[in-house]
Amino acid sequence: MKEIILSKFAEIFGSAEGAKAYFAPGRVNLIGEHTDYNGGHVFPCALTLGTYGVARKRKDNKLRFYSMNFGHLGIIESSLEDLIPSKEADWTNYPKGVMWAFEQRGMKLPCGMDLLLYGNIPNGAGLSSSASVEVLTGFILRDFFDFDLSNQDLALIGQYAENHFNKVNCGIMDQFAIAMGKKNHAIFLDTADLSYEYAPIKLEQAKIVIACSNKKRGLGDSKYNERRSQSEMALAQLQQITPIATLGDLDEEAFERLKDHIQDDICRRRAKHAVYENRRTMRAVEALRSNKLELFGQLMNESHVSLRDDYEVTGVELDTLVEEAWKVEGVLGSRMTGAGFGGCTVSIVRDEVIDTFIQQVGEAYMVRIGYEADFYVVDIGEGPIIL
Ligand code: GLA
Fold it and tell me: Three-state secondary structure along 281-293?
């Protein structure tokens, strides 16, 4: 891959002299959905799929961007004096947002760059292609200009850019999972204080299979921000009667005791999901640690039901993929992953039924939805690297 992207860089930008190649992964979340902005736990892992980048410093302040995924857009030009979000900037709003965030934090960028990207994460699939580009950009800037930043700092800068430049009010999960990824491990992250542990994922005779619904959506136009404010409203009402900082502070029992103080039924259901999903995630990690893979799978299934019925972020496409997956014997667990409203599902599937799974779920999806789903048997990879 390194040779391919370097030669493409040379083709697009004249030569590849002085250019360096990088990679940052995408991510999949195993369990703990819509908990990261509610002070709860998440359990994502980095993938071996991700974003490749080639970058070279310039002598001026110009920024020249090219994506092999959006070749028809050609080179998109900008400059360090123009770090403002715009429709015309298209996908370059992600790297520009990170550059802007560096400058906001007092890290002046001494010169512009030429940057070529190639991603093999399916676009808009909910595997965090945008967070991957953000972390990759931060990683390149740190490498170019020797900023004293940890990978965790890169995650926070990426989230800051997403929140304030691209105006998606996302939590920290995606950028953290990408910046902190570790081969064959998932990250058990407490989003209340960013403490985390790596948990080895040894699936023995099973694999992680991602099914992509191919229903396109971006977080910007989804109901993501709305879900977030509904959770915040529920929290504000609970805070009038009990001293909690986040919904993650409650266990199920405390929630049941206090829930009637949330006036609106919708907000009450959103909060219920946040509380139960957080506890479910803690139990799931415990199950994995004691090698109870079947229990882990059941908790994944329960997570989907809660996202479908209480948080209402699934939709017919994701429900079809998951409900068909549940019918296949040898599927340990299946649920939607990421923000929802389209995107993809994650399933743990025993090796001997992977082909049947892809065929059966694929056919049923086609019949019900009318277009194809795509399937990826994935591996858990490292965080960002210099190639
Ligand atoms: C998106 C956001 C994350 C998280 C998930 C839902 O991926 O970027 O911060 O909230 O949705 O769990």
Answer: HHHHHHHHHCCCH
pLDDT digits (tens, 9 = 90+) for 313-360: 999 999 999 999 999 999 999 999 999 999 999 999 999 999 999 999
Confidence of residue 217 (pLDDT cuts 50, 70, 90): low
Structural contact between residues 161 and 85, judged by C-beta atoms closer than 8 angstroms: no
Return the ligand 1 atom nearest residue 171 CA: 9
Which residues does a 6 A CB cutoff place in the pocket of ligand 1?
A: 33-34, 36-37, 170-171, 173-174, 338-339
Helix (H, G, I), strand (E, B) or coil at 264: coil
The CA-to-CA distance between both ends of the chain, in Å, stands at: 9
CA-nearest of 156, 162, 64, 145 to 109 is 145
Read off the pTM: 0.96
> What is the per-residue pLDDT for 123?
74
- Helix locations, the chain, DSSP H: 2-13, 93-104, 129-145, 151-164, 173-179, 224-239, 252-258, 265-289, 293-309, 316-327, 354-369
- Cβ atoms of 80 and 61 within 8 Å: the answer is yes
Q: How far is CA 266 from the centre of its chain?
A: 25
